Amino acid sequence: MESIKQNPLVKKVGFNRIVLCIVLILMYALFCALTGGSFAGTRRILSALNYAYFLGFLSLAVTFVIATGGIDFSIGPVMFCCALMAGFSFTMYGVPMGGALVISLVVGIAFGIFNGYLVAYWDVPSFITSMASMNIAKGLASVFTKTQSVSWPQSSQDGGWFRSLVTLDGIPMGLIILLVIAVVCAVILNKTKMGRYILSLGSNKEAVRLSGVNVKKWEMSAYVLCGLLVGIAAIFFVGAYTTVQPGYGDQYNNEAIAGCVMGGTSMAGGLASISGTIIGVLIISLLQEGIMALGLDKNLQLIITGVIVIVAVFADVVARRRKN
Amino acid sequence: MGEVILTMKGIDKSFPGVHALDHVDLEVRKGEVHALMGENGAGKSTLMKVLTGIYKKDSGTITYEGKEVEFHNTREAQDAGVVIVHQELNMLGHLTVAQNIFIGREFKKGIRIDDKKMNEEARKLFDRMHIDIDPKETMSNLTVGKQQMCEIAKAISHEAKVIIFDEPSAALTEAEIEELFKIIRDLRDQGLGIIYISHRMDEIKVITDRVTVMRDGAYVGTLITKDCTKDDIINMMVGRVIYEDPKTKNMTPPGAPVVLKVDHLNAGKMVQDVSFELHKGEVLGFSGLMGAGRTETMRALFGADPIDSGDIYVNGEKVTIKSPQDAVKHGIGYLSEDRKRFGIVVQKSVAENTTMADLDEFSNGPFINKKKEKEIAEKFVKELDTKTPGVDQLVVNLSGGNQQKVVIAKWLTRNCDILIFDEPTRGIDVGAKNEIYKLMNQLAAEGKAIIMVSSEMTEILRMSDRIVVMCEGKKTGELDISEATQENIMNMATREIS
């Protein structure tokens, strides 16, 4: 076991990520076997993926916040708020589709600034801040839409072109965009000052502050980036589900956080992996699909994601304890 | 002295990069005060942590009351009667004295906590120690000395048979030390085994029966205190290590300009009206007891804590320092007494820590130039002789002395001209300690201005050109090295209290 871990190739890719990939493949094989082969097939996978992109963006978003040692429980409801406000502007106020998409991003960023400012400059615990903005997001969306659900246009309808962001003539555009943005996120995290400071302050904020670094600014930047990614997630959510209802969105918090921590991002901050997050999200989505394909109770998935979060966090705690 | 109560034999313990304990022996008898001595980093605290179950030993045996034992945590050790009185007090300031003493094993009346009984029991303990502390008093209202007495009361309340005192006198005044000794003698006469850790040679002669000396994590020998001289002990402690020559006169070039002037600085209770000047090429020592306000002064001046009033001048110009960012901008670097918490990011590499204070210099726009970063890190690893397998090594795997060098490299990378070393050799082993001294002298010779906060008298006398002494948040004296002695510094350090 140790010798495998020391192998230079394994070290480069990361032992955890290899394990995750194996889990992913085994799960897939298991579902294929259990469903008698109806689970396999590229088309089936691609259509299933359409429902997974938004979760990928949400998970990327929260990865940056968790890397600082914070947490964001508002991402799901904020995503709904983005989708509702942008969609309502399109259907009711006649804002063109391009403008509506921008509104989604702007709403996401606004919540990111709000959360980040309170956490970084006012020292409000991120737990509390995000709980509060979760409610604010739900309330704001309800007030803005007068508690009506909003349906985004079908591809044949006016403004339906935005769906080509998800699929275009059978090409999985969503997958391409998700991977491109994941690469951008990985570059930000590993190659830039922003990523360096985010990870460092997640590991030891006081030491970074005493090095003369503007920790407040960098801590807030993680939340703003998170907000932007949530705004993008909203677009892919409606691209898959079409209709959004005010007052919901919470359940996606857990799925996004589960994907993130399963991928090796430490809840204690300072350690994060973008590729891990993407694989984690794929596992969660596969699980969802598998449970549906097997005709099992959908709520089973809630239980399993809950267990995954606990197991992943516990594994991280154990690993840390062993290091000390 | 009675029969043997505790024997530690061949205790061995390694941490990544450090062989902390190398087959150490220790024997404690009933009714003796046994000194455990050695330089900082000699392994005394580590040995005690092995004894009380905080660390797991790699090999060796511990025999207690005739049976081989291994405690897995302090709780088990306490229950067996082996109790430690820590150097840093582990008290909860908002609770009362009695609540602190009985924390974790409160007396209960049904499901309610029986505060009355706890107060009574605490009173009995204090009576036994012949001291007068009100059990109902809130802990944070007591002086450091009184808090220490409460720690001892807590230790006794565990029906201790062996009590370990880890540098108990570091924060105490002369009068309080007298009181402490009275208590220790009492306990000894009641047949307890006492392990007493201290750096202060005079105390060792006064209070202890035997001395065990450690050096570089190894056992050197055990002596009977009354049969040996101070020099015997010092020789055993220092051994082959030859230190930098102590300074006998001020080495600052005459007419060196003032680079830092602090004028009537106030910051909370611990920094009251502190003024001093620092010259180019000078090492300015800050001496005083624990809790004298030296670290607080440095943190305020560095912008880490808010300033209430007072002016700071850098190179003759008045500056506003509201955050560490401002201080660094004016060329001030701060090396904290607590490296792990305030100095380094342990999960980052040597290179990443080296550029932490000056990352803009090593970036093109938002992107970090990792090649340039690696070059500067390698340059400083070489210059400071940092022992690390490579600059990609995580700092957590380095020994204390090498971590300190990484912090020094961080500030040198940033080109800071004023360096504040707060307890620069705390937790660093003896060989590395001398290297840090050498480095500081070298930096001063190159024209850096250095402030050195230190609680070790020998370090202050060895390194400083001038010495500022503080007591209870106030500056109580300033001396040139040529006129400084242990005695007059100690006088100033306790002036306010006595």
Record keyword descriptors for this entry:
A: mainly alpha, 14 helices, B: alpha/beta, 6-stranded mixed β-sheet
Please write the string of helix (H) and strand (E) elements of chain A.
Answer: HHHHHHHHEHHHEHHH
Distance linking N and C termini of chain A: 21 Å
- The helical percent of chain A reads over 70%
Give the strand line-up of the largest sheet of chain A. 1-2
Helix share bin of chain B: 25-40%
What's the main sheet of chain A like?
2 strands, antiparallel
How far apart, in Å, are the first and last alpha carbons of chain B?
35 Å
Q: What portion of residues of chain B belong to β-strands?
A: 25-35%
Short overview:
The complex is a heterodimer of chains A (324) and B (498). With 324 residues, chain A is mainly α. Chain A is 74% helix and 1% strand.
Folded structure, characterized:
- The complex is a heterodimer of chains A (324) and B (498).
- Chain A has 324 residues and is mainly alpha-helical.
- Chain A has 14 helices and two strands.
- Chain A has helices at 2-6, 8-13, 15-34, 42-50, 53-67, 75-93, 97-122, 126-145, 173-191, 193-209, 215-241, 250-262, 274-293, 299-323, and strands at 150-151, 243-244.
- In chain A, strands 1-2 form a two-stranded antiparallel sheet.
- In chain A, α5 packs across α13 (274-293) and α10 (193-209) crosses α11.
- Chain B is built from 17 helices and 24 strands.
- In chain B, α13 packs across α14 (400-413).
- The chains are: A mainly alpha (324), B alpha/beta (498).
- At the A-B interface, α10 of A face α10, α11 and β20 of B.
